[in-house]
Amino acid sequence: MQIYLDMCCFNRPYDDQTQARIHLETGAKLLLQQKVKDAECDLIGSSVLDFECKNNPFEERRHAILQWRWLAKTVVMTNQEIIAQAKHLKRMASVNLMLFMLRAPCRVKLMYSSQQMIA
User: Fold this and answer.
1) pTM of the model
2) In the structure, what pLDDT confidence band is assigned to residue 117 with cuts at 50, 70 and 90?
C-alpha cells in the first residue's frame, strides 16, 4: 500500500491533544508512520510537500518533518500538467493553493491525507 501524508497530517502531533478528534488523528498518523518504518507500506512524497515544509516557521517541526522525506519511496514532482490541472480546478471552484497541494499527490494510485482517501 502507498500512503501520502499531507502537511496537516505531519503537523497534527503538534496540535492541541486535549481535543478528542485531534488526539485520534495523531494516533492514526503515528500508526501510519510506524507502518512506513516497518516497511508495511510505502510513503509517497511530493515537491509540494517539500515546499510547504520549507515554509514552516517552526524550525524543530520543519526539521522533524523533512526527515520523513528520506523514507519516501516515490516523490511526485510538480510538472506543467499538474500546474495546468490545478489552475483549471481553481477557475472551476474558486479556491486557492489547497487545490495545488492536493493535485500533485493524485498522480499516485492511492493516497491518504487529512482531507480524503483517493483510490
Assistant:
1) 0.70
2) very low
Instruction: Please state, in angstroms and rounded to a whole number, the distance separating the CA atoms of residues 113 and 52.
Output: 14
Give the whole-angstrom CA distance, residue 44 versus residue 71.
9
Do 56 and 27 form a contact (C-beta atoms < 8 A)? Answer: no
Q: Pairing state of beta strands 111-112 and 2-4?
A: unpaired
Produce one character per residue of 57-71: b if its CB has 16 or more CB atoms within 10 Å, e if not: eeeeeeeebeebeee
State the cell numbers at 69: 522525506
User: What CATH class does 2-118 carry?
Assistant: alpha beta
Q: What is the 3-state secondary structure (H, E, C) of the chain?
A: CEEECCHHHHHHHHCCCCCHHHHHHHHHHHHHHHHHHCCCCEEEEEHHHHHHHHCCCCHHHHHHHHHHHHHEEEEECCCHHHHHHHHHHHHHHCCCHHHHHHHHHHHCCCEECCCCEEC
